[in-house]
């Protein structure tokens, strides 16, 4: 492909310029491996994969870290119901997730930290927060002072409280100074799982796990933090607030890529509502490239509704792109324009329009960069 086309156009993300000189440090919140992979998960990881492929096509050097949240109450409870040790249960579901991602052409990350391997980092994070007065300890639990986190995230108290509870936080915990404080380290006498700490046995809080995994891989900040849109609050807000409080370095993340929610009939796709579309089921009848194109032919931040018609339309667009790629044509300007569009907020729809119009080499370049062959 056209490495000779470079220097590339400027990179923009979330509508803002994101100038890069050195490696691009990227972290994406991965899955809690206790369940099947649905289209909502797939959308997040296909978009991140496409951003990474775009950066590589522009001769930039992305470093990708995608964690596995293998220490989490929902996972522990699911494992207990199944009668399995939590780590074995996580490993089995991780295998299924990896298989789905590989079918979808999502490349393996450079680093894939698992929460249970970073217990020491969470303990160091908790200690740093205590040392700086940003946390306090009650009966073996270390709480982060989160009184200002909701307003910093631009949320009113009512909305913040609803989202807080939806993600398993407890605003009415009487041990807290403020309802919006969150556990960095939680006391637990339940051994499945628990680890020793200076405050007694326990396990990490969810947000603190990601904070610790980012800091241990990248130092005190990173370039792009990605994840599903529903993670904005409380997860990303607390992850970021804890990092900035512990290190004194702000911003924690230079840019965020929060991928829009996938809905069915206007409702968020979620296990709790039972309206799941599974990647494995779609792949029985559709080409992986059609799934990728359905996910990508829109703005990454937009929420959207899945339907069989949407997937059918993507199948048609994919055929049109392959037909265009088979035509003669080697417009260097069009090829440059394809890369320029992708670097401008990963504008796949814009790049696709250029490729369909010009055909030939620019279309083949887009097929390659987006993984649509
Ligand atoms: Zn996370």
Layout of helices and strands, plus pairs?
Layout lengths: L11 E2 L2 E2 L6 E5 L10 H19 L4 E5 L6 H10 L3 H18 L15 H13 L3 E4 L2 E4 L4 H4 L4 H10 L15 E6 L14 E3 L1 H13 L3 E7 L3 H16 L5 E7 L2 E3 L2 E2 L10 H7 L2 H9 L7 E2 L2 H18 L6 H12 L4 H11 L2 H10 L3
Helix pairs in contact: 4-7, 4-8, 7-8, 10-11, 11-13, 11-14, 12-13, 12-14, 13-14
Bound molecules: zinc ion (ZN).
Zinc ion binds next to helix 8.
Account of the 3D structure:
The protein is α/β, with parallel strands linked by helices. It has 2 domains: 20-305, Rossmann fold; 308-369, no CATH class. The chain contains 14 helices and 13 strands. A hairpin with a 2-residue loop joins strand 5 and strand 6. Helix 10 (288-296) packs across helix 11 and helix 11 (308-325) packs across helix 14 (361-370). The structure holds zinc ion.
């Amino acid at each position: 492909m056209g490495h000779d086309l470079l220097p590339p156009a400027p990179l923009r993300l979330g509508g803002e310029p994101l100038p890069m000189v050195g490696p691009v440090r990227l972290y994406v919140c991965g899955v809690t491996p206790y369940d099947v992979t649905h289209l909502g998960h797939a959308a997040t990881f296909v978009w991140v994969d496409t951003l990474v492929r775009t950066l590589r096509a522009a001769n930039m050097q992305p470093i990708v870290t995608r964690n596995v949240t293998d220490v989490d109450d929902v996972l522990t409870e699911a494992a207990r119901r199944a009668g399995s040790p939590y780590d074995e249960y996580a490993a089995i579901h991780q295998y299924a997730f990896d298989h789905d991602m590989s079918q979808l052409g999502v490349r393996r990350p450079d680093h894939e930290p698992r929460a249970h391997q970073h217990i020491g980092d969470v303990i160091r994070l908790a200690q740093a927060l205590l040392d700086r007065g940003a946390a306090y300890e009650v009966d073996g639990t270390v709480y982060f002072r989160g009184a200002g986190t909701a307003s910093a995230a631009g949320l009113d108290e009512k909305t913040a409280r609803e989202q807080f509870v939806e993600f398993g936080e407890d605003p009415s915990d009487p041990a807290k100074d403020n309802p919006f404080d969150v556990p960095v380290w939680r006391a637990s006498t339940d051994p499945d799982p628990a680890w020793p700490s200076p405050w007694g046995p326990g396990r990490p809080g969810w947000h603190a796990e990601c904070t610790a995994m980012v800091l241990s891989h990248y130092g005190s900040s990173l370039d792009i933090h990605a994840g599903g849109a529903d993670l904005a609050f409380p997860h990303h807000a607390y992850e970021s607030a804890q990092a900035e409080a512990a290190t004194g370095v702000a911003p924690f993340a230079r840019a965020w890529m929060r991928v829009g929610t996938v809905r069915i009939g206007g409702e968020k796709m979620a296990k709790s509502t039972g309206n799941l579309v599974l990647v494995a089921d779609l792949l029985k009848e559709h080409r992986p490239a059609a799934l990728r194109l359905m996910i990508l032919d829109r703005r990454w931040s937009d929420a959207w509704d899945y339907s069989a018609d949407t997937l059918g339309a993507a199948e048609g667009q994919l055929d049109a792109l392959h037909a265009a790629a088979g035509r003669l044509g080697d417009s260097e300007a069009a090829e440059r324009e394809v890369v320029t569009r992708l670097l401008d907020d990963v504008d796949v729809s814009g790049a696709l329009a250029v490729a369909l119009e010009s055909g030939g080499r620019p279309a083949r370049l887009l097929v390659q960069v987006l993984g649509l062959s």
